Every structure is written in C-alpha cells, then in structure tokens.
C-alpha cells in the first residue's frame, strides 16, 4: 500500500501523540492524578524493590516476570513508607508493616497497599499513574 504525503503526516502525528512522555513538568491540578515516567523498563531486570520514586508516591517492584508499582503511602494515616532490606515496607509513624506484595503484616493499618496502574509506552518507558 502506498500512502500520499498528507496521509504520512497524519500517521506520523498520530504516532508522535501516542508516544508523548509523562510528567511534562507542568504542575497537575489539585487532586488530579499524575503520570510519572519511571524510566526504561530494562533498568528493572533484577527481582527486588526499587525505591527511587518513593518521594513521588510509589515503589517499583520486580518479582519474576511481573513488574508493578505499589503505593509508597501507608494506608493507615498516609505517612511515607520505607523499603526494608528484606523487600518489605515499614511505616515509621505508627509501626504498620507490609510484605513485598503490599499485604498488611502488622497494624494498625488494615488495608493493603494499592497497586498503581502502570503502562509501558512506545519508547519502552514505564509510566506509573499516581493518584492526586
């Protein structure tokens, strides 16, 4: 199939729009979710917890062939969590603890950590949607 110049330009513009990067530097509206580019999927090849985005609200976790993002905010009183050497998570505010899958192992938290929506864009970048 041969396409003309106009069709090519429309196709190229559509592909470019679908491959825009997340977190373009503009401040999100108050309470709006944010899409954070967590970098190339290829940098998360080893099993473990990657805490480089904890200050932005999530941990990236690789477990076998699964790559996912867990909230870095305690479900008890919204304190920031720390990743422990055994790949669990701990809240210094009130002592809640969560296992590597985000399940509560010690209260006072009663709810597991939310798994945040992720996607891999056309450039092979992991994009995590963080609630506002």
Compact overview of the structure:
With 132 residues, the chain is mainly beta. Helix content is 11%, strand content 33%. The longest helix has 14 residues.
Secondary structure elements and pairings:
Elements lengths: L4 H14 L15 E7 L7 E3 L7 E6 L2 E6 L9 E3 L5 E3 L5 E2 L5 E3 L8 E2 L1 E3 L4 E6 L2
Antiparallel strand pairs: 1-11, 2-3, 3-4, 4-9, 5-6, 6-7, 7-8, 10-11
Largest sheet: 4 strands, antiparallel
- Total DSSP helices: 1
Mean pLDDT across every amino acid position: 83
Measure the end-to-end span. Answer: 45 Å
Strand order, sheet with most strands: 2-3-4-9
Coarse shape: elongated
Low-confidence stretches: none
Number of strands: 11
- Provide the β-strand percentage band: 25-35%
Rg, rounded, reads 18 Å
Q: Which structural class is indicated by helix and strand composition?
A: mainly beta
* Range of helix content: 10-25%
Order of helices and strands: HEEEEEEEEEEE
Provide the descriptors you would attach to this structure in a database record:
mainly beta, 33% strand, 11 strands, 132 residues, 1 helix
Write structural notes for this entry.
- With 132 residues, the protein is mostly beta strands.
- It contains one helix and eleven strands, in the order H-E-E-E-E-E-E-E-E-E-E-E.
- It has one helix at 5-18, and strands spanning 34-40, 48-50, 58-63, 66-71, 81-83, 89-91, 97-98, 104-106, 115-116, 118-120, 125-130.
- Strands 2-3-4-9 form a four-stranded antiparallel β-sheet, with no helix packed on it. The protein has a four-stranded antiparallel β-sheet with strand order 5-6-7-8, with no helix packed on it. The chain has a three-stranded antiparallel β-sheet with strand order 1-11-10, with no helix packed on it.
